[in-house]
């Protein structure tokens, strides 16, 4: 008999069906003994030849089994200590069997996971070499450290080369550690790209347009230049080789359309740092489109005339002045948006930043979540403000129609002229010295109105507190009512005015209509 496989086959035939579990344990012990002997340089045939015949080994097993049964039968009283020891040993054997079973089940899954991760890092290395001409330090090091683990997991499936696998594993670990020290010392663990500078000029100013997108940190500025020059763009910073190639091979007749530092799964270990982009726009040039799409950055945009003005920014601040556009869209998740002295029909969407707009001509729509909106000196046909829990302040403006709504935020409108409608659910509404018509609706929050001039107004509240302060020299009849709350009306006996009327209604809240005192 030359092989262990043949020996085990005959040994299994000598065991009864109900004792197969014991046979499997014996089989594992024999295989482990074989692996140890093979590592010591012995051959499989030598190891098998020294074993008792399968029949003898099976006979010894059943003889021991019979002896145990006989001893147990003759013994009528077993000491407590022996019972305890037997129980502990039995529990240990059960636990060992459970661990072995779990390991057998989990091992292939762990191996599959490690192979998948190894394959991903290997693809990362190949892609980085091919497109960026760079050795991906961290993926390379991780591959060198993962491979020994994989080799150790598959080692038991290889009988003749286990010692060689152990040596290779040690070598790979040492090489990975050495590369880690080298790249750390040279500050090259992360791919930082290459320093690059480029000026791009359009060949014509007819239908000129700019579109720039980046997932890196970018500082962007616009500069107005002489009308004799062509629209142009300056790029400066560190960029990936693939992006540099994209810039160099681009076509720039009447439009710059660039997408740089685009994040993907193969840029996990890339850090190019902040870059700088400057747009040079000739005086009097009207662009067809001005678009910026950034993940991070700071924008200073001045003196732009364009048909479409579009900013999409996740994190960073925007400062814009003297923007003239037919349509404008600004999306900002985390950052401040400041716009001054511009003429534009604008839509702003802000999550948590601050929006400040002053001296703007055009329609305005603001959608906010937890943001602060401060609006001054607007001249608009239509203003729509929607906020969840932030604060909206509008002052010294003119709007044919204003609609401001919130859930539990604050709406404050002062010295504004127009058809004004403000609605809140649980937050606060403040109207001060406005002209035109007022419609104030609140759920359970306070509503405060302060007036010197006469207005037409409707104030409705479910349970919130209502307070109206009116200049007594411009007295107007105010109708007020509350079903269960406290009511005070200092203007109840004022004569009716056909032109002006104020109606204040609350279901359960207090209502106070008071004379304004300087």
List the helices and strands and how they pair.
Blueprint: H1 4-13, H2 20-39, H3 44-49, H4 54-74, H5 80-132, H6 137-154, H7 162-185, E1 194-201, E2 209-225, E3 232-239, H8 241-248, E4 255-260, E5 275-282, E6 286-287, E7 289-315, E8 318-334, E9 337-340, E10 343-350, E11 354-358, E12 364-368, E13 372-376, E14 379-387, E15 391-395, E16 398-406, E17 410-414, E18 417-424, E19 428-432, E20 435-442, E21 447-451, E22 456-461, E23 466-470, E24 478-482, E25 487-489, E26 502-506, E27 511-515
Parallel strand pairs: 2-4, 2-5, 2-7, 6-7, 7-8, 8-9, 8-10, 9-11, 10-12, 11-13, 12-14, 13-15, 14-16, 15-17, 16-18, 17-19, 18-20, 19-21, 20-22, 21-23, 22-26, 23-27, 24-26, 25-27
Antiparallel strand pairs: 1-3, 3-5
Transmembrane segments: 102-123, 135-154, 166-185
Protein name: DUF4097 domain-containing protein
Keywords: Membrane, Transmembrane, Transmembrane helix
Distance between the termini: 115 Å
Structure annotation, total helices:
8
- CA-based shape: elongated
Would you tell me the overall average pLDDT?
A: 87
Which regions contain 5 or more consecutive residues with pLDDT less than 50? 74-78
Q: Strand content of the residues, in percent?
A: 35-45%
| Helix residue percentage | 25-40%
Give the structural class: alpha/beta
Please describe the biggest sheet, giving its number of strands, its sense, and whether it closes into a barrel: 27 strands, mixed
Specify Rg, calculated over alpha carbons: 40 Å
Q: Using DSSP, what is the number of strands?
A: 27
